[in-house]
Amino acid sequence: MILQGKRTWVYPKPPVIIATGTVVGPDEGQGPLASEFDLVHPDLEIGQPSWEKSERALLEQASDIALQHAKLSKDKLNFFVGGDLMNQIISNSFAARTLGAPYIGVFGACSTSMESLAIASLIVSSGAGEYVMAGTCSHNCTAEKQFRYPTEYGSQKPPTAQYTVTGAGTSIVAREGQGPVITAATIGKIMDLGIKDPFNMGAAMAPAAVDTIQGHLQDTGREPGYYDLIVTGDLAGVGHPIASEMLRRNGVQMDQTKFLDCGLMIYDVENQKVQAGGSGCACSAVVTYGHLLKRIHKGELRRILVVATGALLSPLSYQQGETIPCVAHAVAIEASNSEKQGDAAP
Amino acid sequence: MILQGKRTWVYPKPPVIIATGTVVGPDEGQGPLASEFDLVHPDLEIGQPSWEKSERALLEQASDIALQHAKLSKDKLNFFVGGDLMNQIISNSFAARTLGAPYIGVFGACSTSMESLAIASLIVSSGAGEYVMAGTCSHNCTAEKQFRYPTEYGSQKPPTAQYTVTGAGTSIVAREGQGPVITAATIGKIMDLGIKDPFNMGAAMAPAAVDTIQGHLQDTGREPGYYDLIVTGDLAGVGHPIASEMLRRNGVQMDQTKFLDCGLMIYDVENQKVQAGGSGCACSAVVTYGHLLKRIHKGELRRILVVATGALLSPLSYQQGETIPCVAHAVAIEASNSEKQGDAAP
């Protein structure tokens, strides 16, 4: 039985992340993690005639890079699991057309990174696939255009807003191979405490992160200290302190130096004009696949829990006065024995 | 190993569909399958102040009905797997908030019905969940408003267009219990033969249905005659004959009396004003869960393959001149031994 507790999958034979691909745009290329990504574009256009095509190109490039890293031809992929913020997840559907792999479209807004990884891991772990790619992407200009205003308008934002990451992150999950392993995943419930402001999604998503972290610890019987790091997806400068405070009040003892947020890590939030920090499907994807897995490889981290958060609103739902339902999906990634000995492939 | 061939899951211990819920609107209530649905609404409003809330209500009702049929309280559900046509699949996300179950959002346009059922079955079959609900919904007025024009405008359509089904279908998949079983699923690849016309989605989707049917037969080594019926999702009057012809040219011997289409079954296409026939996420969901499973229960059918088709366009993608990528996911449903003996619960 893979199911442990109410909603956590503990994979009996942990699938391996044999390769990843990360591609980002210029703002991320000026952030503190710039050197960790496989490809940094100097501009937002990426040689494409529309922002939507730029976003798709990011994902296609990240897919190609992961396949190159894995030394795998794309016809070996059993499935591609992915989604994004665009209406009808067109970036992933069009990239899946290019890739040619059987396609499982998913949607969890910015939690899509870990939702797709959890499902890919379930497929591999259960013997339903040998090589499965999980991927997601976002682009600052497509997200602003669709959810708020085209960036060309130059409209202002409050400091609680977040800055959508331009990038794409993919991983290839396999039954065998070298790399960190996925030991568990916890699927989120919808949490909605009544926040309606799309410029304050960190606050809206914080309860979902807290609920999933507590659910994961309860289902697995683990203490927070089991993990070297617990990293939320993109709560950023407003949401992450709220999550910390909620966990404290709920009696969950977290070492604050081991509780980080991808939205705060990807930018120099003080000096880059990113309001409260990063967000977007690519945020937790590129920070996890680019930065955190490298730290596992270097032996700096052995066990991490990535808790990707998603705000499941649509422009229509908030125009109609609805509150913002949120979700968070968590995936536990651990160093494999080979990496613990420091002899894994890069 | 669940994986058979390239992209087909053959479930070692076939999960059981222990209950379903189907809710439809007035047009479907005037169609030939009206008596097969659990709840028929006499109007499109369903007591709600917006079309989006009406669509969500359909799904919430179909979820409640399935739980009642299964005599299961909602806290027993391990996961809810669902998606819909709305931007950011808001109908499912909001319904998942009401349901309270851990939520896996998926998107395959009108193929979502079988995508969600395939994933729910994988979860149950692999021991990653005991009770998993799969669900989807669509509403004629939300889909027209979002993809084309609000119905209030009264804009005309060509006869190749399809009519979005107003309805919702849910199923509860379990490890044990009485009901038909899910023996296999084949995940679709993106097929895109260059059609750009959103008023002719049947033609666009036909190659995806053909590819998945052939992939399924190849992976499983089965002949079309293994199934009492092979039913496409919603190719309707234009797409279904194209699929038949493509299969014939590819040398797949199909008995045309056993090759049907949900979009042609749900309406009296000749006499109801539905252009080429039905479409929408709910189309294959309510026809499968309402009508086809009842025929299995009655002993009229023993093995069916439901091939739900999806056109993965967005309004933006076709406005930008893109072609329509399409996908089809197939699920094989068979009578259980108890049903073969005619003693299953209704």
Could you please describe the fold and organization of this structure?
Two copies of one chain form a homodimer. With 346 residues, chain A is an alpha/beta fold. Chain A folds into two domains: 3-174, 3-Layer(aba) Sandwich (Peroxisomal Thiolase, Chain A, domain 1); 180-335, Peroxisomal Thiolase, Chain A, domain 1. Chain A has eleven helices and 15 strands. Chain A has helices at residues 26-29, 51-70, 90-99, 112-125, 140-147, 201-220, 236-249, 262-265, 281-297, 315-319, 337-340, and strands at 3-4, 8-10, 16-24, 39-40, 79-84, 103-105, 131-138, 163-164, 167-174, 181-186, 229-232, 259-261, 278-279, 303-311, 326-334. In chain A, the strands form three sheets. The first copy, chain A, has a seven-stranded mixed beta sheet, sandwiched between helices. In chain A, helix 2 crosses helix 3 (90-99). Mean pLDDT of chain A is 96; it is low at 341-346. Chains A and B meet through helix 3, strand 6, helix 4 and helix 10 of A and helix 3, strand 6, helix 4 and helix 10 of B. Chains A, B: One of its GO terms (molecular function) is acyltransferase activity.
